[in-house]
Specification:
Strand content: 15-25%
Protein name: Hydrogenase expression/formation protein HypE
Helix content: 25-40%
Family: Belongs to the HypE family.
Structural class: alpha+beta
Order of helices and strands: HHEEEEHEHEEEHHEHEHEHEEE
Distance between the termini: 15 Å
Organism: Streptomyces sanyensis
InterPro entries: HypE (IPR011854), PurM-like_C_dom (IPR010918), PurM-like_C_sf (IPR036676), PurM-like_N (IPR016188), PurM-like_N_sf (IPR036921)
CATH class of the largest domain: Alpha Beta
Number of strands: 14
CATH topology of the largest domain: Phosphoribosyl-aminoimidazole Synthetase, Chain A, domain 2
Radius of gyration: 21 Å
Pfam family, one: AIRS_C
Number of domains: 3
CATH architecture of the largest domain: Alpha-Beta Complex
CATH superfamily of the largest domain: PurM-like C-terminal domain
Shape: globular
Largest sheet: 7 strands, mixed
């Protein structure tokens, strides 16, 4: 969901509407008032880019969903919502998974459905306690396939320390689905003293990543298109709660965490820059990119900064804590390749700039959609 939303005013009342007409008829999107670029305003139908986690997804939320049911919690949403209930601070998130193919090097839709959602809570500093699971199955899917997916989910939940507490199953007619779709939601407690949100970012904060980027998207692409890049690329799908715990043990004063999934590192950095009102400068050569991923991206004309990850995080950390946090990350199995890649700056607020290996600079834009659709 987008960090920033605006509320779209209702259309003027229709004088022809009778008193008995449904009230919902008064709440319609003001299409002519939208100022976003095509295809949201100029395209009358949803396109694949609207689900890509980039600018088009943000516009869909801003102009369609937020005006329909936005509220204080939705206005503050990041990877997950932080809400209060009975005096407790809870992190709450939901996610849907439509990856194709269902099984790929390093994981499956079952692993993704667990790790993707528990990682959203981890970006708030919370450990997921309970998980819900909703299956949408296409008529004709093999029971053996469904059993493998469920088994992967169970193993991933046990590894993440989360309990699947409730769920639902629906079946659609053959030809009206793609085998298996999964929705998961999770809830967990936010520790006292932890306040992770982009509005806390300040100029001078160090930008850290937990490891090499781009593996998940390239792993999906390799099996989907039958491509080989010399060395096999496996998804980095993993639960990040333990790594976040290690970072918070150094200091609870981390400013913001994000897992750069759809839209990759570029989308996460741009969202944080826009929400914080700071600029971000990264050193392109400092961003760890595996050689097979770099080679595949060069061959296909992709930017590895825009390729999805499922087991990495980016952190904005006060400069005085950066070295200690980096050491803690590198001591954890999921952070061995952690690196400082840049900093938040006062210049060019809301913009991400990369210093290139040739000594120049380039703007790292928010992706419009997703380079590789159906990757999670």
């Amino acid at each position: 969901m987008a960090e920033t939303t605006t509320r779209t005013p209702r259309e003027p009342a229709d004088p022809a509407r009778t008193p008995d007409a449904p009230a919902a008829a008064d709440v319609r999107p003001d299409v002519l008032g939208w100022t976003c670029p095509a295809p949201l305003r100029d395209q009358p139908r949803v396109v694949m880019g609207h689900g890509g986690g980039g600018a088009m997804s943000a516009e869909l939320v801003e102009h369609v969903f937020a005006p329909a049911f936005g509220g204080p919690a939705l206005d503050r949403i990041g990877d997950s919502a932080a809400v209060e209930l009975g005096g407790a601070r809870l992190a709450f998130s939901t996610d849907s998974f439509v990856v194709r193919p269902l099984f790929f090097p390093g994981g499956s839709i079952g692993d993704l459905a667990v790790n993707g959602t528990v990682n959203d809570l981890a970006m708030r500093g919370a450990r997921a306690a309970y998980l819900s699971c909703g299956f949408i199955l296409e008529e004709g899917v093999e029971m053996e396939v469904l059993g493998r997916v469920a088994g992967a989910m169970g193993a991933a939940a046990r590894a993440a320390g989360v309990e699947v507490a409730t769920g639902d199953t629906k079946v659609v007619e053959a030809g009206h689905g793609d085998g298996v779709y999964i929705n998961t939601s999770a809830v967990g407690l936010i520790p006292a003293g932890v306040d992770l949100r982009p509005q806390r970012v300040r100029p001078g904060d160090a930008v850290l990543v937990s490891g090499a980027v781009g593996a998940h998207g390239i792993a999906i692409l390799s099996v989907r298109e039958g491509m080989e890049f010399g060395v096999g690329v496996e998804s980095d799908c993993a639960p990040l709660g333990g790594l976040v715990d290690a970072m918070l043990a150094v200091t609870p004063d981390l400013h913001v965490l994000r897992d750069p999934t759809r839209g990759g590192l570029a989308a996460s950095l741009n969202e944080i820059a826009a929400a914080s009102g700071t600029g971000v400068v990264i050193e392109e050569r400092a961003v760890p990119v595996p050689e097979p991923v770099a080679a595949a991206c060069a061959f296909l004309g992709l930017d590895p900064l825009l390729v999805a990850n499922e087991g990495k995080l980016v952190a904005f950390v006060p400069r005085e804590h950066a070295d200690a946090v980096l050491d803690a990350m590198r001591a954890h199995p999921l952070g061995r390749e952690a690196a400082v890649i840049g900093e938040a700056v006062e210049d060019h607020p809301g913009m991400v700039v990369a210093r290139t290996g040739l000594g120049g600079t380039r703007v790292v834009d928010m992706p419009l959609g997703e380079q590789l659709p159906r990757i999670c």
